[in-house]
Fold this sequence. Notes:
The chain is of the alpha+beta class. It has helices at residues 75-87, 143-151, 158-165; strands at residues 3-6, 11-18, 24-31, 35-40, 47-54, 59-63, 66-68, 90-100, 111-120, 137-141.
Amino acid sequence: xxxxxxxxxxxxxxxxxxxPNGREHTVEVVRHPPSVVLLPIxxxxxxxxxxxxxxxxxxxxxxxxxxxxNPGETPEAAARRxxxxxxxxxxxxxxxxxxxxxxxxxxxxxxxxxxxxDLGPPAPDSTHRPDEDGDLEVQAFTCDEARAMVENGEIVDxxxxxxxxLL
Length: 167
């Protein structure tokens, strides 16, 4: 498909596509690398959430840590990296839960959900640092508190709301 836009995070392609039913349609596809979505669980069972400003909706949001895979990076390595970057904690246990496509009608991004636990300080030589555009507040909540945040509208991010159902 011909690319009509390339940005830092995603690209957009537009083309005519022959569908299985024999009809041809113009389609627009957002190309986005896979992302990892983390459920960081502390030893006491609390889940770590991050609060950050989202310019697309002009508000701060509480979310589970998440981020895109770098080129050539495995999902497991990305889960470890994102956990360190966003929570400043290194997981010693990384459990892949499932992969889902949040918007397959127009986007090829896969969200790969992980439970990360046995959290501790990063290795002294770790190079994982928060993103330059990230100004994150990190806080742990009980599972009941986090689920209540979805119910009362404090968590408006769909991937986070769904992730909390996996606890």
